[in-house]
Every structure is written in C-alpha cells, then in structure tokens.
Design brief:
By secondary structure, the chain is mainly alpha-helical. The chain is built from 6 helices and no strands. The chain has one domain. Helix content is 67%, strand content 0%.
Length: 137
C-alpha cells in the first residue's frame, strides 16, 4: 500500500510539474534571464507552492503522524556548513545551466525532450559519486 501511495503522490507531483511547464528547461532559463526576456512563470509556481506550504505545514505537523506513513521524516541538522553551501551552489549552477532540477527532470523523462535523458544520467552519476566521496552509500 505504501508503494501505491508513493506512486500516486509522485504521479500527481509530476502532473503538476508538467501542467505548470516546469519540465521545460526554457521556462527555467527564461526565469533566470533577468537581463533579457524575463519569464515570471516560475515565480508564480514557487509563490503557489510557498502559499500552500506556509499555510498548511504547521497544521500537518500537529498530527501525530502523516496520513500515508508511520512517522514524519524531518531534517535534524540546523547548522549551515561548507558542504551545505557548496551543495546549494552546485545545485543552482546545474539548474541554471541545464534548466532542470531533479523533480522536473524525472517528470520530464516522459516528455521526449532528448536533453532530459542526458541530464538524468549526469544527475544519477553525480549522486553516486557524491555518495562514494562522502561515504553515504
């Protein structure tokens, strides 16, 4: 049942990304092109996500457990350190250069955009390498 719930949630998330066109790297690159033809679409998607999160997250955390899982998995580290900053910078550079971040890239695999396949392969290789370098595998 847990696997089915995860599949349904992932499909819903992927549909949301597709409908908002966030699987199209041109949307992301257009958003980052503040000196050229700026595309505010991504700002509206982020604002919508923030509105839902900020308003509902405190209510959700009042529950003893999530609806579809046995417990909450929340970050415990609160320290801003060098690995966090470097990881965030690498994520931002990759997002700006490729026009994809992990969620939209995975959802974009069904789009037929050839660049997404190369991005996902590079993303998986990077995750594997990071796990090997940090010992998290």
């Amino acid at each position: 049942m847990l696997l089915l719930n995860a599949f349904i949630a992932g499909t819903l998330f992927g549909l949301g990304l597709a409908i908002s066109e966030m699987i199209n790297p041109a949307r992301v690159i257009g958003f980052l092109d503040v000196a050229g033809t700026w595309d505010p679409t991504l700002a509206f998607v982020m604002a919508g996500a923030l509105a839902v999160t900020v308003s509902l997250f405190p209510l959700i955390l009042k529950r003893s457990q999530p609806l579809l899982c046995g417990k909450f998995y929340l970050p415990t580290r609160q320290k801003i350190d060098r690995p966090l900053l470097l990881g965030g910078a690498l994520f931002g550079v990759g997002w700006g250069l490729g026009g994809f971040c992990p969620g939209p890239a995975l959802a974009g695999l069904v789009s037929g955009i050839s660049g997404v396949y190369f991005f996902v392969i590079a993303m998986l290789a990077g995750q594997w390498l990071a796990g090997r370098l940090t010992g998290d595998q």
